Amino acid sequence: MNAMRRAAAALAVTAALFLAGCSSTSGSPDGSATGGPTGTRPDDRKVSGLRGITLPSWNTDDYDRPEAGQFLRQIADTGARWVTFTPTWYQDGLTDSGMHTTEETAGDDSLRHIIGLAHSTGLKVMVKPHVDLVKGQDRAEIRPADRDAWFAAYGRFITHYARLAADTGAEQLAVGTELAGTSQDGARWSRVVAAVRKVYGGPLTYAANYDEYKKVPFWGDLDVIGIDAYWPLAEKATTDATGLREAWKPIGDELAAFSARWHRQILFTEAGYVSQRGTTTAPYSWTVSKRSGDDEQAAAYEALLAAFDGKPWWAGVCWWMWDDWPGSGETAKRLAYTPHGKPAERVLRQWWGAH
């Protein structure tokens, strides 16, 4: 069998496992994972495709708020089968050696609470911890002066959430998000992943930014390649879903080849578009313009789903994001990433079979 056929065969096996579904994990009394044997090779694990939406937190008690159950029911009503939660710790500076909780970090009890609510709503859960900067700089710019100290601190941070994910039966875990300033350090990240696997038995991913994923050397340690899919698709504002789908084609070709190289499916751990004119020119931006762009947002949703649905290497998408918690959103809902109550929500319902 030649190299290309071997790659295709290996990808077919992992795709079959991915589509077979993810076994729920639960924790043992000593905090170790019981959702799967530790030390299992990633290729042997079952992972599930995602039709998901992120519900981020911005304050300690967000996931305890009365709106939590309503938000989860609304997410499920779109046809979504997954929800992602994002507890966040913070660094004071880009070169610091560690991260810490703040009043904006979701409390552990609130995270346990909302994971339980999600499961009772019929949604599977991905826990996707973030590290951000107190002063708002880009997390991709984190470059610790003492890398050994930073990775030791990061290991404590992520294994904390690995234990919580195991204890609550969360079905998937991201070991990191958009940490491009550290993600090329394959040896240290491999040790982080190994530590996580000792306490969490479910499938693992890492959420690389769209301009970072090719530089990540430790995909082989994980079960699925995660990409935050904020590729610019147009040079000017457009509502042409067909043209946007065409813009995805060369990107899709690159992703298919990358998937075959690593024998892993690719999950869009984030993808999203603000309801602003020009959003497809800079999907990563919260402030493209002050003009509403509901139709452009909907066209972008349609184009992404049409471009990738059914691709054997594609593991699905978790959209960024559902509604902000009352009083916490810095962007008005009519201009924000949420598809709720907009034409983009109708696109989701059509593709995901909601009634």
UniProtKB/TrEMBL annotation:
It holds the Pfam family GH113. Residues 1-28 form the signal peptide. It comes from the Bacteria. Residues 25-51 are annotated as: Disordered. Keywords: Signal. SUPFAM superfamilies: (Trans)glycosidases. Gene3D superfamilies: Glycosidases (3.20.20.80). The keyword Signal applies. This is Uncharacterized protein. It comes from Streptomyces blastmyceticus.
